[in-house]
Specification:
It is a single chain. It is built from no helices and six strands. The mean pLDDT is 85.
């Protein structure tokens, strides 16, 4: 293969699983952390990869949209990047 393109659906879920500690300021008033609800968030999106094996090059893009968030704001995430692997000459073993 000289090049490869991939497209897929991605998603994630996050939950807070332990009690909060300390106090928080809500509207300028201190509130015990035990009164603040646990947070959770769920997101779904798309990921695309482009791979050039002969050139040792990979590029990717991800987009997530949070469709449900409790005790925190909803948001969108864009991620992109690439990697290029350098080939250094290897020393050859001596002939015997």
């Amino acid at each position: 293969m000289s090049q490869l393109a991939q497209l897929g659906v991605v998603g994630y879920d996050q939950w807070q699983v332990s009690h909060n500690g300390g106090t928080y300021l809500v509207a300028g008033l201190p509130v015990a952390a035990s009164k603040v609800p646990y947070y959770s968030v769920h997101g779904i999106g798309v990921q695309a990869n482009y791979i050039l094996p002969a050139k040792n090059f990979v590029a990717f893009f991800k987009y997530y949209d949070e469709y449900r968030a409790l005790a925190r704001p909803k948001g969108r995430t864009f991620v992109f990047g690439f990697s290029w692997t350098l080939k250094f000459p290897r020393t050859r073993p001596p002939k015997s």
